[in-house]
Amino acid sequence: MYKILTLNNISVAGLDRLPRDRYEVASEMSHPDAILLRSYKMHDMEMPPTVKAIGRAGAGVNNIPVDKMTTLGIPVFNAPGANANAVKELVLAGALLAARNLGQAWRFATALEGDDAGISKNVESGKKNFVGFELPGRTMGVIGLGAIGVKVANACRALGMKVIGYDPTITVQSAWKLASDVQQALSVDDLLSKSDFVTFHVPLTEATTHMINVDRLKLMKPGAVLLNFARNGIVDDEAAVAALDSGQLYAYVCDFPSNLLKNHPRVITLPHLGASTVEAEENCAIMVADEVRDYLENGNISHSVNFPDINLPRNGGYRIAVVNSNVPNMVGQISSDLGKENMNILDMLNRSRENIAMTLLDVATEPSGTLLENLRNIKGVLSVRCLGCKQDRKTA
């Protein structure tokens, strides 16, 4: 029986992917095999030694100490693209909110007092203060062309906007999905100088922190709109407010309220609604539950932020899953130990990513506890599991 600890409410649609005859799921549990979470901050959490996998039902993993998990040999899974449509729709909503001054108009309308005749008179005299502009013909700059960025770019083209994108690491799969007339920016600076709207779909890293700062705001077209539904910190909020006050920026719409932003007349802040739809929560939970289950049961890895992708179809026999530091002769040492026990290897696959590696081996006969212990004692090995073995529950 695998034990799954949940640190946040996880959609039932995802939890239903974990058969109850093989999985115990609870919000309080000792000795869990895996942890599922959404926004819970794990940095100060003491990690139970039994944990073998962490699944984040969402895309960003800033709330998880990924580097620490890597050193412990624990893969961290996420759900890239599962919330892409939800974020895309919010970006479009943000663009419309800014272009038509809907936030300011809403505040004006809710503050109206008097009888209906007086309200109607004030509406007619006041609406001139909220004249906006239309989206067709305007240029949307999209920084980051992953699952979300591609959907945003294509949707903006469908609305009649011009689109320019920048992503030096765009995948072939994303490129195939992108509308053919989306223009390529040579750099972030090039994109900023040509865009009426700029939207971000990148993780928060050292390289992207304050990507939009005082200097880059000066490159933007006067009257441009910033849309940040990615991560707090990508935009230097103080610099953005200064640009709004000077008239360099027309509006700033983001998902991250603060005392600096929430009452500014040219800022619309939303309470981190990017993935807050029933559909997105279900999609994320299903995706990450499937990933964690495949890893626990088969050792396969997909959509891990710190481990290599690896997928070895089961060919019968018994599966040994080894997590180790990515150092020379590791596969040789593993094979040597198996050879000493006269173990016949039916199939084997090794994959690495930076400092971590994963080896999956299907063997004809069940390995002994002594063999598994010998593998664990190899210098650089972080964990060894035998999947489908009698001692699976003891050693997994």
Supply the key terms.
3 domains; Rossmann fold; Alpha-Beta Plaits; 16 strands; 33% helix; 396 residues; elongated; 5-stranded parallel beta sheet
Write out the strand line-up for the largest beta sheet, numbering strands in chain order.
8-7-6-9-10-11-12
Strand-residue proportion: 15-25%
Order of helices and strands: EHEEEHEHHHEHEHEHEHEHEEHEHEEHEH
Helix content percent band: 25-40%
> How is the biggest beta sheet arranged?
7 strands, parallel
By DSSP (H or I, 4+ residues per run), the number of helices equals 14
Give the rounded overall mean pLDDT: 95
Total DSSP E strands: 16
- CATH class of the largest domain equals Alpha Beta
- CATH superfamily name of the largest domain? NAD(P)-binding Rossmann-like Domain
Which regions are unreliable across 5 or more consecutive residues at pLDDT < 50? none
In CATH, the architecture of the largest domain is 3-Layer(aba) Sandwich
Broad structural category = alpha/beta
The separation of the N and C termini measures 11 Å
So what's the overall shape?
A: elongated
Total number of domains:
3
Q: What kind of oligomer do you see?
A: single chain
CATH topology of the largest domain: Rossmann fold
* Rg of Cα set: 26 Å
Structure, explained:
By secondary structure, this protein is of the alpha/beta class. It folds into three domains: 112 residues, Rossmann fold (3-Layer(aba) Sandwich); 186 residues, Rossmann fold; 88 residues, ACT domain (Alpha-Beta Plaits, 2-Layer Sandwich). 33% of the residues lie in helices and 20% in strands. The protein has 14 helices and 16 strands. The strands form three sheets. It has a seven-stranded parallel β-sheet with strand order 8-7-6-9-10-11-12, with helices on both faces. α3 packs across α6. It is elongated. The protein starts with a strand and ends with a helix. The model has no long low-confidence stretch (mean pLDDT 95).
